[in-house]
UniProtKB/TrEMBL annotation, chains A, B:
<dbReference type="GO" id="GO:0005542">
    <property type="term" value="F:folic acid binding"/>
</dbReference>
<dbReference type="Pfam" id="PF02971">
    <property type="entry name" value="FTCD"/>
</dbReference>
<dbReference type="GO" id="GO:0019557">
    <property type="term" value="P:L-histidine catabolic process to glutamate and formate"/>
</dbReference>
<feature type="domain" description="Formiminotransferase C-terminal subdomain">
    <location>
        <begin position="181"/>
        <end position="295"/>
    </location>
</feature>
<dbReference type="InterPro" id="IPR013802">
    <property type="entry name" value="Formiminotransferase_C"/>
</dbReference>
<dbReference type="InterPro" id="IPR037070">
    <property type="entry name" value="Formiminotransferase_C_sf"/>
</dbReference>
<dbReference type="InterPro" id="IPR022384">
    <property type="entry name" value="FormiminoTrfase_cat_dom_sf"/>
</dbReference>
<feature type="domain" description="Formiminotransferase N-terminal subdomain">
    <location>
        <begin position="3"/>
        <end position="180"/>
    </location>
</feature>
<keyword id="KW-0963">Cytoplasm</keyword>
<keyword id="KW-0369">Histidine metabolism</keyword>
<dbReference type="GO" id="GO:0005737">
    <property type="term" value="C:cytoplasm"/>
</dbReference>
<comment type="pathway">
    <text>Amino-acid degradation; L-histidine degradation into L-glutamate; L-glutamate from N-formimidoyl-L-glutamate (transferase route): step 1/1.</text>
</comment>
<keyword id="KW-0290">Folate-binding</keyword>
<dbReference type="InterPro" id="IPR051623">
    <property type="entry name" value="FTCD"/>
</dbReference>
<dbReference type="InterPro" id="IPR004227">
    <property type="entry name" value="Formiminotransferase_cat"/>
</dbReference>
<dbReference type="GO" id="GO:0030409">
    <property type="term" value="F:glutamate formimidoyltransferase activity"/>
</dbReference>
<protein>
    <recommendedName>
        <fullName>glutamate formimidoyltransferase</fullName>
        <ecNumber>2.1.2.5</ecNumber>
    </recommendedName>
</protein>
Length: 298, 298
């Protein structure tokens, strides 16, 4: 695959495995689309599918999956801990390889347009695709959830970007948009004192005057007798792994606490690793095309 | 491709482009084999082809390429600066992905057996495939070159592992073996004094009491007004990039010289980079399967 976009659609069904598998099937055995993972949570009554592919092929598969979800998931009978406003709740597109953010935004709009029209589903563009600033944040778009959607959409502020002006009777509405890949990165601390971990997290994160694209919280690892600063880096091209790591180390010094090591959770784009190795080794002109495995893929 | 072996055969023709292209063609448009690069040097009168593929497919393509070279290259008429003993001078196999060194050794022996038989070509196994210690080092195997081969092979010490007991009249003999991938890594120094760079190189390298799998020399970068320690890491799984880098930094301190940065030359296995990022960030359980691009390849 030359161009790759990742998509992580969230579906409001986490208990009926047959339904989840039917949706996931839309991504299986398709040319130029690869189903990477899917997982369901019964308490949340929600499933998250991770898929990647060539833009056009991915678009077709996502449209197909949305159709299946609209048909099989009925929000009027849905309960679960996780907030939701639609059968398909949110569809983020993430540029991965040879794709710009603008291309991912364009794809998200094409998908929004298609599913609005085809399934009579109101679509709100969010994150980088948002057409109005108050729609960038998913929590804002989803506020009021499925049950509050009908009234919320009466306001011109919440006129959808695509699809009908009122919610789909059983499938609600959906947020579609483009965003950067998240990097989940934790730094373990040589202290069992959660207060210290929390204090460091507050310094490191954006809202505490820290790094622009860093969310962070203190976490206790009881079995290990240590704590950690657990972080989400929402734009690793600007807030790199090494910057988050070194800032935790720097803030920890105030407490006489040392860093016990870092931990990458889940998948990470190669560029995010290369960026860190380039910092520590002082590499000037290194390109990921020099990585043998990447060269072999070309 | 699930299993990948790299092969970097050297051919004793660097002037006649048509011949080089005919040999390279043996690797083009083959299923499960990828021609990564080839380059010719007219002074050396020698060409190096870099190819990678699934073991079986790669084996067939290499055997085919050797046949073309034996037919088209005549060592009795060959001159060039680079030492050589055969039309195909050396064929190293390098395990890259899901392949053990033992499997690469086995493949090298299968290829050696096949080309010895098929083309009446004496084959010496070298490096990790060597059957006798004095044949591990390629320079030993090649000593005396094409012109001295007939007399050299009279000695039982130089009975070939495969093929006839005397050289091929026009194609000489070939060394075939398995080895680790080389990592070419340089560290730039904030000094224009070549003597300092050379002194550091001597400390860092194996023969000077330094790192086991490190070859190094001092080099002057005249246009930049600095020097560098230029290294070959012959087993990056044991002598990692970060170890070489930090040892150069440590030795440079003695001269009050600082490190201006590192430089990776050519291709590098992902594992070698990950190993260094894991050192600097203190990552404990990171796997290259967490790299998105690698996950996509699975």
């Amino acid at each position: 695959m030359n161009k790759i976009i990742e998509c992580v659609p969230n579906f409001s069904e986490g208990r009926d495995k047959q339904i989840v598998e039917k949706i996931a099937d839309a991504f299986s055995a398709k040319d130029n689309v690869k189903l990477l993972d899917y997982s369901s949570d019964a308490d949340h009554n929600r499933s998250v599918i991770t898929v990647a592919g060539e833009p056009e092929a991915l678009k077709e598969a996502v449209i197909e999956a949305v159709g299946i979800a609209v048909e099989l998931i009925n929000l009027t009978k849905h309960s679960g801990q996780h907030p939701r406003m639609g059968a398909v709740d949110v569809i983020p597109f993430i540029p991965i390889k040879n794709v710009t953010m603008d291309e991912a935004i364009t794809l998200s709009k094409e998908v929004g347009d298609a599913i609005g029209e085809k399934y009579n589903l109101p679509v709100f563009l969010y994150e980088k695709s948002a057409t109005q600033q108050h729609r960038e944040n998913l929590a804002n778009v989803r506020k009021g959830e499925f049950e509050g959607l009908k009234e919320k959409m009466l306001s011109p502020e919440w006129k959808p970007d695509f699809g009908p002006l009122q919610p789909h009777p059983t499938a609600g509405a959906v947020a579609v948009g483009a965003r950067m890949p998240l990097v989940a990165y934790n730094v373990n601390l040589n202290t069992s004192d959660l207060e210290i971990a929390t204090a460091i997290a507050k310094k490191v994160r954006h809202i505490g005057g820290g790094l622009r694209f860093c969310k962070a919280m203190g976490v206790e690892l009881e079995d290990k007798g240590i704590t950690q600063v657990s972080m989400n880096l929402t734009d690793y091209t600007k807030t790199s792994i090494y910057r988050a790591h070194e800032m935790v180390r720097m803030e920890a010094k105030r407490y006489g606490v040392t860093v016990a090591g870092g931990e990458v959770i889940g998948l990470v784009p190669l560029e995010a690793l290369v960026d860190s190795v380039a910092y520590y080794l002082g590499l000037d002109n290194f390109s990921i095309k020099q990585v043998l495995e990447i060269k072999l893929m070309e």
